[in-house]
Amino acid sequence: QVQLVVSGGGLVQAGGSLRLSCTASASGIIFEINAMGWYRQAPGKQRELVTSITSGGMTNYADCVKGRFTISRDNANNTVYLQMDSLKPEDTAVYYCNANLAITRVTGRRNYNYWGQGTQVTVSS
Fold it and tell me: Are strands 108-115 and 10-13 parallel, antiparallel or unpaired?
């Protein structure tokens, strides 16, 4: 059983900062992280990619967050962080962690996609 545990989020004024974290864990499962990322979904809108980071450290950012958000990872602890600075009201959304993991079982190695629970980020004007 793979779990993505998300922490962080909350209410902040415009211009403020928040930090999210997401830790991947599994009991009795051998896995490697291919990539992890953050998505968000605002009311009435589709879920969208915010940022992602590969195992090799390559990052990708949505244009609307470039220069304000920073994704980083702690490989030793299978954790990814999202530092959000200069927050705007339009950043208000439920943020979701996503992980693409390579899992090795007796039957072989396959890639799987997992989602963490959402965390609310609310930016007041």
Answer: unpaired
